[in-house]
Each structure stands twice: as C-alpha cells, then as structure tokens.
C-alpha cells in the first residue's frame, strides 16, 4: 500500500472522513500527528476499544505519529453519544487511578514501537483543571449555537426521550472534546482525530472550533461501529464483558471470545483487528470452506490475543483450547488450570473423597443423583477424559492433576473443573 488510507479502504475501515482528497495528499507526502481519545470510566479497557487502538497502530506503521488522549476530565462528565441514559459519575481520585491502569495497558499494546515513532499518551485533566469557567464560556461557548448542538444525532436521541432527557453536564461534553482537538492542534500540531462512528458529531465540532479559534484546518476519520452478533455495541456495560486486563478476563477466555465469533463475521474481523496481509485474508474469504473458516478463526484469536496479552499468553491460550477440543488432558500445564479456574469453564471447590454421582449434581451437570446414575451407565461421563461407568465411583488422588484439579465432562461439550 502506498498510503494508509489505501490500507483502510481495503479493510473497509473508513466509515466517515472529512475532505478525503486533501488529507489523502497530506498522508501521502508527510508524516502527520493524529489522536484518538479514551475516557477512563473503568480500571481497564475492553474489546470495544480495540479497533481505534489498532487503527492508531496502522498509522504508526505508515510512519505517522499517534497521540492517545486519556479523558481524565471528560470522563468526569460522561459522553452522552448514543447512550440510553446518563453514565454513572465517579470521583476524581478513582478516575486518576483508572487512568494510570489504562496508561500501562496502552504502553504494553504499543510496546513494539520504534524509537523515533513512539506513541504519546497525555491526559486532558492536565489542562481542563486549570481552565477558568468564565473564560471557557466566553471563548468556546460563544462559538457554538444551541440549535446546532441540539440537532446532533447523539444529543437529539436523548432530548426526545422524556423518561431520561440529557443533563447540562452531558450536553457540554461536545464542547470539552472539541476543545481537546483545538488544544492538541495548537500544542502538538495534531491535524487528524479518529474514532468510532458514534464520535462523528464530537469530531466535526472539534474541526469547527479549531478553525474558528485558531484558523487552522484539521480533519476527522471514523471507523465502523463494531457490534456483537446480537446487534449490541461492544462495550463494558453489557453482561459477560471481555476486558483487556488479564486479571479481569483471562487470556484463554479472551482467545475463546474471538475463536467463537460467527462465521459471517470472521473475515471482516480479520481485516479490522489484525495486521495479516489483506491479500491472504481475501484468498481465505473467496473460498469459504469449513477448513478456511477454522483457519481464519484460529488466526484471528491468536493474533489479537498476542497483541493484547503477548506471545507467551497467546500460545498458552491456544494450547489450552486445543487440549480441551482434542481431549489432550495430559498436555495441560499447571498454569493452564489457573486460567481455567479464573474464568475458563464452570468450577466447583471440593474437599475429601467425593462420590461421582453427588459431584455431578453439585456441578450442575445433572439435576439429580438418579439422572447422574443413568448418565454414567450410558457411557456419557468422563473424568480427565477417561470414561467412567461405575456409578458408585469415588474420586481418589489419581484423579487430581497437579494434586488439585480434575476435569469432569458430560457428553462432548459440557465441562466442569473440580478444584480440590
């Protein structure tokens, strides 16, 4: 690819862009500075943040200089963009603590950067905490008309909801993010902001403010909003969140999240989330055999896990997944069981020499002891991949891998980890 935008177009990553021809020439002939913002509204980033992060890394590969803006100030207000209700507000000390955690995560994600092209991470709390309210209203507030702000899609949806509405604090979020763009243009020479398509209204306001206050031209680019298979946006506020912090979501569960994406999504996700050559992805996509879909899912899961958790963790997650799928119980490492124990499969804690029928009931693999007896006698129960047909069986020391783990299985797909 001659240009980063050619790469983006080939991967279907451009949803909206301002002044395509002009910014394309800039990107072709110059190294530019660009930014993307992340509000620290939790102690970890999640999968919903991955696409803009990876897109920043794509710009970096093409020798452009990314800046990451942590919204220490804006997170105290809360972005209303396409939210059904107002976000929960958090104390300053908590936001500062979360910002440090996320700063560490981002440094790890950009760990392979070149010396002359390092990512810069800054926090908008550093300048907003010094701003005088009257000066801000006079210099920034006067630039925006209420009628235009109200007509932005992200605001309009909330204003029209009588049960929720929108607070003045949330309404002012657009001005704060716009000021970020202006400030970064003035202090760092940033000319491009990228983000998800839900940020287009905030980005265009920043373009407008920068031109009015600084008489400089800046640009915006958004990527498609990534949705779950049920149509819900990737994010931390939904059930079963997938976090980038290994203490909140283990590398194995993270790997499983990606290997279990739908067949219809896997090739688009390979284009969006990996740095695999686009021609290879297209060759797999053009021949959608079962084998190629399996290859694509394995590539997707491994590459993203390697990016987020490192090569060792990615290999571990892949090994655990293969061992479970192919029933290679003896190939497990003790550290593999620690991941399974964290969130890899249902688990129960046991003491002493428990009988098999009762453990099947306690693990919720069956509903009753009589049902457990029937399942055992019908050859459907496995202990560490060994078929057990004796319904009077009692667990012993030989069943305890590393003296503390047993994998109990019903049929082909129902597992429980016994932790002794």
Characterise the protein shown here.
The protein is an alpha/beta fold and 420 residues long. The protein is 46% helix and 11% strand. The longest helix has 20 residues, at 290-309. Strand 10 and strand 11 (414-419) form a beta hairpin. A 6-stranded mixed β-sheet has the order 1-6-5-2-3-4, with helices on both faces. A 5-stranded mixed β-sheet has the order 7-11-10-8-9.
Topology, please?
Layout (H helix, E strand, L loop, with lengths): L3 H7 L5 E2 L2 H10 L3 E6 L11 H12 L3 E6 L21 H18 L10 E4 L1 H4 L4 H7 L6 H5 L2 H7 L8 H4 L1 H16 L3 E5 L3 H15 L4 E5 L27 H9 L6 H8 L4 H9 L3 H20 L1 H15 L8 H11 L2 E3 L6 H7 L6 H9 L3 E3 L2 E2 L17 E6 L3 E6 L1
Parallel strand pairs: 2-3, 2-5, 3-4, 5-6, 7-11
Antiparallel strand pairs: 1-6, 8-9, 8-10, 10-11
Helix pairs in contact: 10-11, 12-15, 12-16, 13-15, 15-16, 18-19
Distance between the amino and carboxyl termini? 55 Å
How would you characterize the largest beta sheet?
6 strands, mixed
Stretches with pLDDT under 50, minimum 5 residues: none
CATH homology superfamily name of the largest domain:
HUPs
Q: What is the percent of helical residues?
A: 40-55%
Strand content: 5-15%
CATH top-level class of the largest domain? Alpha Beta
**What series of H and E elements makes up the topology?**
HEHEHEHEHHHHHHEHEHHHHHHEHHEEEE
CATH topology description of the largest domain: Rossmann fold
Oligomeric form? single chain
Q: What is the molecular shape?
A: elongated
Please, how many domains? 3
């Amino acid at each position: 690819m001659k240009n980063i935008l050619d790469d983006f177009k080939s991967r279907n990553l451009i949803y909206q862009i301002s002044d395509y021809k002009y910014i394309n020439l800039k990107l072709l002939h110059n190294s530019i500075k660009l930014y993307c913002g992340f509000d620290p509204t939790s102690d970890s980033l999640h999968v919903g943040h991955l696409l803009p992060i990876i897109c920043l890394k794509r710009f970096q590969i093409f020798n452009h200089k990314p800046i990451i803006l942590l919204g220490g100030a804006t997170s105290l207000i809360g972005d209303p963009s396409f939210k059904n209700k107002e976000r929960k507000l958090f104390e300053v000390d908590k936001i500062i603590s979360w910002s440090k955690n996320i700063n560490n995560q981002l440094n790890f994600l950009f760990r392979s950067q070149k010396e002359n092209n390092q990512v810069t991470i800054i926090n908008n709390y550093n300048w907003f905490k010094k701003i005088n309210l009257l000066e801000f209203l006079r210099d920034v507030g006067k630039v925006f008309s209420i009628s235009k702000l109200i007509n932005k899609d992200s605001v309009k949806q909330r204003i029209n909801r009588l049960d929720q509405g929108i607070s003045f604090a949330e309404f002012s979020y657009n001005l704060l993010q716009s000021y970020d763009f202006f400030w970064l243009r003035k202090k760092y020479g940033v000319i491009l902001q990228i983000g998800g398509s839900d940020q287009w209204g905030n980005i265009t306001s920043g373009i407008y403010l920068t031109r009015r206050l600084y008489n400089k031209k800046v640009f915006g680019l958004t990527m498609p909003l990534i949705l779950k298979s049920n149509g819900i946006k990737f994010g931390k506020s939904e059930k079963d969140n997938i976090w980038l912090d290994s203490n909140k979501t283990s590398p194995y569960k993270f790997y499983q999240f990606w290997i279990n994406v739908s067949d219809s999504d896997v090739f688009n996700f390979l284009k969006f989330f990996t740095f695999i050559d686009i021609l290879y992805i297209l060759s797999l996509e053009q021949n959608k055999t079962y084998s190629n879909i399996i290859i694509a899912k394995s590539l997707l899961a491994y590459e993203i896990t390697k990016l987020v958790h490192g090569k060792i963790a990615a290999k571990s997650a892949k090994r655990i997944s293969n061992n479970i799928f192919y029933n290679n119980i003896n190939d497990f490492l003790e550290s593999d069981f620690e991941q399974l124990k964290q969130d890899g499969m249902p688990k129960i804690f046991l003491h002493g020499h428990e009988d098999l029928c009762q453990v099947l009931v306690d693990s919720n693999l069956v509903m009753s002891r009589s049902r457990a007896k029937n399942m055992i006698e019908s050859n459907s129960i496995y202990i560490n991949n060994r078929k057990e047909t004796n319904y009077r069986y009692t667990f012993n020391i030989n069943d305890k891998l590393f003296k503390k783990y047993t994998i109990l299985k019903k049929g082909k797909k129902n597992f429980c980890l016994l932790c002794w």
